[in-house]
Design a protein that fits this description.
Length: 236
Protein backbone atom coordinates (compact mmCIF):
# COMPACT_ATOMS: atom_id res chain seq x y z
CA UNK A 1 0.00 0.00 0.00
CA UNK A 2 1.36 3.43 -0.95
CA UNK A 3 1.48 5.65 2.10
CA UNK A 4 0.22 9.20 1.79
CA UNK A 5 2.96 11.78 2.33
CA UNK A 6 1.54 14.41 4.70
CA UNK A 7 4.59 16.58 5.23
CA UNK A 8 8.25 16.76 4.27
CA UNK A 9 10.62 18.60 6.59
CA UNK A 10 14.37 19.20 6.38
CA UNK A 11 15.36 15.89 7.97
CA UNK A 12 12.20 13.77 8.01
CA UNK A 13 9.11 12.85 6.05
CA UNK A 14 5.77 12.20 7.71
CA UNK A 15 3.28 9.71 6.27
CA UNK A 16 -0.29 8.81 7.20
CA UNK A 17 -0.71 5.47 9.00
CA UNK A 18 -3.72 3.16 8.81
CA UNK A 19 -4.77 4.24 12.29
CA UNK A 20 -5.74 7.95 12.09
CA UNK A 21 -4.31 8.50 15.59
CA UNK A 22 -0.83 7.46 14.40
CA UNK A 23 1.77 8.68 11.91
CA UNK A 24 4.83 7.16 10.25
CA UNK A 25 8.03 9.21 10.43
CA UNK A 26 10.82 8.48 7.94
CA UNK A 27 14.33 9.81 8.64
CA UNK A 28 16.43 11.20 5.75
CA UNK A 29 20.18 11.64 5.38
CA UNK A 30 19.66 15.30 4.42
CA UNK A 31 21.29 17.84 6.69
CA UNK A 32 20.74 21.58 6.84
CA UNK A 33 22.11 24.35 9.03
CA UNK A 34 21.60 28.09 9.50
CA UNK A 35 17.88 27.88 8.71
CA UNK A 36 18.42 25.81 5.59
CA UNK A 37 21.10 28.03 4.03
CA UNK A 38 23.72 25.29 4.29
CA UNK A 39 22.71 21.98 2.76
CA UNK A 40 24.35 18.57 2.64
CA UNK A 41 24.07 14.87 3.18
CA UNK A 42 25.33 12.85 6.12
CA UNK A 43 25.44 9.27 4.90
CA UNK A 44 23.62 6.88 7.24
CA UNK A 45 22.37 9.69 9.48
CA UNK A 46 18.70 8.81 8.98
CA UNK A 47 19.24 5.28 10.27
CA UNK A 48 21.29 6.42 13.27
CA UNK A 49 18.91 9.23 14.23
CA UNK A 50 15.87 6.99 13.94
CA UNK A 51 17.34 4.21 16.08
CA UNK A 52 19.00 6.54 18.59
CA UNK A 53 15.92 8.69 19.04
CA UNK A 54 13.78 5.60 19.63
CA UNK A 55 16.15 4.16 22.24
CA UNK A 56 16.30 7.48 24.09
CA UNK A 57 12.52 8.01 23.90
CA UNK A 58 11.99 4.53 25.42
CA UNK A 59 14.44 5.40 28.20
CA UNK A 60 12.59 8.66 28.89
CA UNK A 61 9.23 6.91 28.81
CA UNK A 62 10.53 4.55 31.51
CA UNK A 63 11.61 7.59 33.52
CA UNK A 64 8.00 8.83 33.49
CA UNK A 65 8.21 11.32 30.64
CA UNK A 66 5.43 10.67 28.10
CA UNK A 67 6.55 10.56 24.44
CA UNK A 68 5.03 10.09 21.00
CA UNK A 69 7.00 6.86 20.39
CA UNK A 70 4.99 3.76 19.49
CA UNK A 71 7.10 1.27 17.50
CA UNK A 72 10.19 1.15 15.28
CA UNK A 73 9.03 -0.15 11.88
CA UNK A 74 12.32 -0.32 9.98
CA UNK A 75 15.83 1.16 9.87
CA UNK A 76 14.47 4.58 8.96
CA UNK A 77 10.79 4.43 9.88
CA UNK A 78 8.94 4.75 13.17
CA UNK A 79 5.30 4.70 14.15
CA UNK A 80 4.43 7.61 16.44
CA UNK A 81 1.31 9.06 18.01
CA UNK A 82 -0.24 11.85 15.96
CA UNK A 83 0.16 15.12 17.84
CA UNK A 84 -0.56 18.76 17.28
CA UNK A 85 2.98 20.16 17.52
CA UNK A 86 3.44 23.13 19.86
CA UNK A 87 5.39 25.46 17.52
CA UNK A 88 8.01 26.27 20.13
CA UNK A 89 11.56 24.91 20.18
CA UNK A 90 12.60 24.19 23.76
CA UNK A 91 16.34 24.42 24.36
CA UNK A 92 18.01 23.21 27.54
CA UNK A 93 21.68 24.03 28.16
CA UNK A 94 24.23 22.78 30.68
CA UNK A 95 27.29 24.41 29.09
CA UNK A 96 27.59 27.52 26.91
CA UNK A 97 27.92 26.89 23.17
CA UNK A 98 26.40 27.90 19.85
CA UNK A 99 23.95 30.78 19.82
CA UNK A 100 24.19 31.24 23.62
CA UNK A 101 27.94 31.89 23.45
CA UNK A 102 27.45 34.24 20.53
CA UNK A 103 24.53 36.15 22.05
CA UNK A 104 26.09 36.70 25.48
CA UNK A 105 29.77 36.79 24.51
CA UNK A 106 30.70 33.85 26.72
CA UNK A 107 33.31 31.23 25.82
CA UNK A 108 32.11 27.91 24.48
CA UNK A 109 32.58 25.40 27.32
CA UNK A 110 31.58 27.72 30.19
CA UNK A 111 29.74 25.44 32.64
CA UNK A 112 26.54 26.64 34.31
CA UNK A 113 25.72 25.86 37.96
CA UNK A 114 22.14 25.07 36.98
CA UNK A 115 20.68 24.24 33.57
CA UNK A 116 18.98 26.97 31.53
CA UNK A 117 15.88 26.78 29.36
CA UNK A 118 14.87 28.96 26.45
CA UNK A 119 12.14 29.01 23.84
CA UNK A 120 12.15 29.96 20.22
CA UNK A 121 9.22 30.37 17.85
CA UNK A 122 9.30 27.48 15.35
CA UNK A 123 8.90 29.64 12.27
CA UNK A 124 11.48 29.32 9.48
CA UNK A 125 10.42 32.46 7.63
CA UNK A 126 11.09 34.51 10.79
CA UNK A 127 14.32 32.59 11.53
CA UNK A 128 13.02 30.88 14.72
CA UNK A 129 13.19 33.99 16.94
CA UNK A 130 13.90 33.67 20.66
CA UNK A 131 10.84 34.22 22.87
CA UNK A 132 9.88 34.12 26.53
CA UNK A 133 6.96 32.42 28.28
CA UNK A 134 4.78 35.53 28.03
CA UNK A 135 5.33 35.65 24.27
CA UNK A 136 4.37 31.96 24.00
CA UNK A 137 1.12 32.74 25.84
CA UNK A 138 0.47 36.02 23.97
CA UNK A 139 0.70 34.22 20.62
CA UNK A 140 -1.54 31.46 22.05
CA UNK A 141 1.06 28.82 21.19
CA UNK A 142 0.61 27.15 24.59
CA UNK A 143 -1.21 27.85 27.84
CA UNK A 144 0.51 28.71 31.12
CA UNK A 145 -0.24 25.19 32.39
CA UNK A 146 1.17 23.62 29.23
CA UNK A 147 4.33 25.73 29.53
CA UNK A 148 4.77 24.54 33.14
CA UNK A 149 4.37 20.92 32.01
CA UNK A 150 6.82 21.43 29.14
CA UNK A 151 9.45 22.96 31.48
CA UNK A 152 9.03 20.13 33.98
CA UNK A 153 9.46 17.49 31.25
CA UNK A 154 12.38 19.33 29.59
CA UNK A 155 14.41 19.47 32.82
CA UNK A 156 13.52 15.84 33.59
CA UNK A 157 14.78 14.87 30.11
CA UNK A 158 18.01 16.74 30.85
CA UNK A 159 18.59 14.90 34.15
CA UNK A 160 17.95 11.46 32.62
CA UNK A 161 19.99 12.06 29.47
CA UNK A 162 22.88 13.79 31.28
CA UNK A 163 23.27 10.76 33.54
CA UNK A 164 23.02 8.31 30.66
CA UNK A 165 25.49 10.12 28.40
CA UNK A 166 27.91 10.49 31.31
CA UNK A 167 27.98 6.68 31.59
CA UNK A 168 28.92 6.62 27.89
CA UNK A 169 31.80 9.08 28.41
CA UNK A 170 29.84 11.85 26.72
CA UNK A 171 29.01 15.33 28.02
CA UNK A 172 25.51 16.57 27.20
CA UNK A 173 26.11 20.24 26.41
CA UNK A 174 22.65 21.28 25.21
CA UNK A 175 19.70 20.04 23.20
CA UNK A 176 16.45 21.06 21.53
CA UNK A 177 13.09 19.42 22.20
CA UNK A 178 9.66 19.72 20.65
CA UNK A 179 6.39 18.84 22.34
CA UNK A 180 2.93 18.05 21.01
CA UNK A 181 -0.66 17.65 22.18
CA UNK A 182 -2.44 14.31 21.87
CA UNK A 183 -6.12 14.25 20.88
CA UNK A 184 -7.01 14.28 24.60
CA UNK A 185 -4.92 17.43 25.11
CA UNK A 186 -2.09 15.78 27.04
CA UNK A 187 1.42 17.06 26.31
CA UNK A 188 4.01 14.52 25.12
CA UNK A 189 7.60 14.76 23.95
CA UNK A 190 7.71 14.57 20.12
CA UNK A 191 10.15 15.08 17.20
CA UNK A 192 13.59 13.48 17.74
CA UNK A 193 16.58 13.32 20.07
CA UNK A 194 19.74 12.77 18.06
CA UNK A 195 23.15 14.29 17.24
CA UNK A 196 21.16 16.67 14.97
CA UNK A 197 19.38 18.12 17.99
CA UNK A 198 21.94 17.73 20.81
CA UNK A 199 25.50 18.88 21.42
CA UNK A 200 27.51 15.89 22.59
CA UNK A 201 31.20 16.18 23.48
CA UNK A 202 33.62 13.36 24.33
CA UNK A 203 34.11 13.78 28.10
CA UNK A 204 37.86 13.05 27.90
CA UNK A 205 38.99 14.80 24.74
CA UNK A 206 36.21 17.39 24.32
CA UNK A 207 35.81 16.26 20.70
CA UNK A 208 32.49 17.30 19.18
CA UNK A 209 30.40 14.27 18.25
CA UNK A 210 27.29 15.95 16.86
CA UNK A 211 25.94 18.09 14.02
CA UNK A 212 28.33 20.93 14.86
CA UNK A 213 30.88 18.94 12.81
CA UNK A 214 28.64 19.59 9.79
CA UNK A 215 27.67 23.16 10.80
CA UNK A 216 31.32 24.15 11.32
CA UNK A 217 32.90 22.02 8.54
CA UNK A 218 34.99 20.07 11.05
CA UNK A 219 35.10 16.89 8.93
CA UNK A 220 34.51 13.25 9.96
CA UNK A 221 30.79 13.93 10.33
CA UNK A 222 29.63 10.37 9.54
CA UNK A 223 32.26 8.94 11.89
CA UNK A 224 31.04 11.14 14.75
CA UNK A 225 27.44 9.94 14.33
CA UNK A 226 28.70 6.33 14.21
CA UNK A 227 30.82 6.85 17.35
CA UNK A 228 27.86 8.27 19.29
CA UNK A 229 25.66 5.37 18.19
CA UNK A 230 28.37 2.88 19.24
CA UNK A 231 28.66 4.44 22.70
CA UNK A 232 24.88 4.41 23.06
CA UNK A 233 24.40 0.76 22.11
CA UNK A 234 27.33 -0.31 24.32
CA UNK A 235 25.67 1.29 27.36
CA UNK A 236 22.00 0.41 26.84
P1 LIG B 1 21.97 26.88 19.31
O1 LIG B 1 23.11 27.05 20.27
O2 LIG B 1 22.35 27.04 17.89
O3 LIG B 1 20.79 27.74 19.70
O4 LIG B 1 21.47 25.37 19.46
C1 LIG B 1 21.05 24.84 20.69
C2 LIG B 1 20.74 23.36 20.53
O5 LIG B 1 19.60 23.17 19.73
C3 LIG B 1 21.85 22.54 19.89
O6 LIG B 1 21.95 21.31 20.58
C4 LIG B 1 21.40 22.31 18.48
C5 LIG B 1 19.91 22.34 18.60
N1 LIG B 1 19.25 22.92 17.44
C6 LIG B 1 18.31 22.20 16.73
O7 LIG B 1 18.03 21.05 17.06
N2 LIG B 1 17.70 22.80 15.67
C7 LIG B 1 17.95 24.06 15.29
O8 LIG B 1 17.36 24.54 14.31
C8 LIG B 1 18.93 24.81 16.04
C9 LIG B 1 19.26 26.21 15.64
C10 LIG B 1 19.53 24.20 17.09
Amino acid sequence: MKKELLYEGKAKKVFAAEDPELLIVSYKDDATAFNGQKKGTIRGKGIINNQMSNMLMKMLQQAGIPTHFVEELSERETLVKRVDIVPVEVIVRNIAAGSFSKRYGVDEGFRFDTPTIEFSYKNDSLGDPLMDEYHVQALKLATKEEIETIKKYAFAVNERLKTFWQQCGITLVDFKLEFGRLADGNIVLADEISPDTCRLWDSCTGKKLDKDRFRQDLGNVEEAYQEIMKRLTEHM
